[in-house]
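Justification of computing resources. Each target in the renewal requires a structure prediction run like the one illustrated here; the chain below, 206 residues long, is used simply to show the kind of job we budget for.
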Amino acid sequence: MRIACFHTAAIHQHTFSALFAEQAPEASLIHMVRDDLLSEAQVVGVEALIDPVLEALGALSSADAILCTCSTLGPLVDTIQSNKYIRVDRPVMEAASEHGPKILLALCLESTRTSSLALLTDVRGDDLDATVTMSEDAWPLFMRGELDAFADAIAADVAIAAPGHDAIVLGQASMAVAAPSLSALGIPVLTSPPLAVARAIAVASS
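Resulting structure tokens:
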């Protein structure tokens, strides 16, 4: 089983390697990191990057499953007519939609707001009652590798917005580090990495 991971942050190599080792230790992993594409997407928009992103993903096509771990670039993954290509946030949005219509979507990057909301609407339907909480001030902490402070900043913002929601989605893979700090809220807190890894394994095994 060969699974490729397409990242826009090098730190995700460790995160996803560890999850695959837990769920499918027999899997052979390939990692590609293109942090330049996320930086550019924040400036020119996702649509402007369709050619370089699809070229990069296409270079991984020999794998049995290809997982794009960047939610900002997720809509471009959906343009590929192959179920081998998986966007990291689809499984978590599907899981959240099963908890109820009132979903709190937590994000750190404005560049992923539109695509994340569109995906959540697509999987939940017309009764979706979503709220977005942004932790933009947390992102520089992630970029500097200050993961404890990054997690604390996200948890503080989410805790304020959480009451009254059926589920909380930490919409970017990097935000999963904040989940343990939110367990006391009594609301399901869903993160994308473990669910996306499970989906990739299922696809690669089919």
